Amino acid sequence: MEQSPLAIDHVGVAVPSIDDALHFYGDKMGLSVVEKLDLPERQLKVAFVQAANMLIELLEPTDPNSTVSRFLERRGPGLHHLCFGTPDIRRHLRDLQDKGVDLIDTEPRPGARGEVAFLQPSAALGVLVELTQPPGETSPAPPENAAPSEVVVDSGADAAPPTATEPPPHD
Q1: What is the mean pLDDT of residues 44-64?
Q2: What DSSP string runs through 136-156?
Q3: 44-50 long-range contacts, Cβ below 8 Å, gap at least 24?
Q4: How far does CA 128 lie from the centroid of its chain?
Q5: 3-state secondary structure (DSSP) of residue 61
Q6: Dihedral sign, Cα of residue 21, residue 26, residue 29, residue 34
Q7: Cβ–Cβ contacts within 10 Å for residue 104, how many?
Q8: How does the average pLDDT of the chain come out, rounded?
Q9: How many Å apart are CA 82 and CA 71, to the nearest integer?
Q10: What are the C-alpha distances in Å from 102 to residues 31, 76, 112, 123, 132?
Q11: For range 65-81, the mean pLDDT
Q12: What's domain 8-133's superfamily in CATH?
């Protein structure tokens, strides 16, 4: 059984200041802010900016010892992760694990906008990949002829998992 390709939900961008980033993405690029969140338990401030076909998640660390802060120290501001949306994150994670993909999260965790999980960057050729299942998304029913444990996900390469408790480090 073939599944349609995964859609990019958002691109995560690590920034030292959300306000400065919003000056560029909002004032100069003309994009609008969809949501701003303070996530003290994750040591982050997050803002989602709407592009025509996806979101940009701006990640500002609020603690110098956080993973995003360490990312900024090592690499400077820029692309942090690529996030794909999935209608059934648990099945997707099981399928990726069955295919031998190294996961950071074997179970989803709460993210800024639903449940998320991350893949090891080494599994995706150096890219930190996140999967997300937005709140309220229901898992699709398995095909009538599928065994209860059968998972059918065609994720292309190894790319296909979740978003942001505090994003894991990306080295």
Answers
A1: 96
A2: TPPPPPPPTTS-TT------S
A3: 44/68, 44/164, 44/166, 45/18, 46/18, 46/112, 46/164, 47/18, 47/21, 47/22, 48/10, 48/112, 48/113, 49/22, 49/25
A4: 8
A5: strand
A6: positive
A7: 19
A8: 83
A9: 15
A10: 35, 26, 23, 6, 17
A11: 96
A12: 2,3-Dihydroxybiphenyl 1,2-Dioxygenase, domain 1 (3.10.180.10)
Which tokens belong to 85? 């949306």
Question: Which amino acid, residue 92?
Answer: H
Residue 158 has pLDDT above 60, yes or no: no
Which runs of consecutive H residues, i.e. helices, occur in 23-142? 67-75, 89-98
Closest CA to 83 of 167, 161, 156: 161
Collapsed DSSP state (helix, strand, coil) of residue 170:
coil
CA contacts within 13 A on the Cβ side of 112:
28
The tokens of 4 are what? 């349609």
The total of other beta-carbon atoms located within 10 Å of residue 102's CB is: 13
- Report pLDDT for 146: 38
Domain spans of the chain, in order of start: 8-133
Task: pLDDT band for 105, please (50, 70, 90 cuts).
Answer: very high
pTM recorded for the entire structure: 0.77
pLDDT-above-70 percentage for the chain: 78
Name which of 61, 67, 81 is nearest 9 in CA terms: 81
Q: What is the pLDDT of residue 5?
A: 84
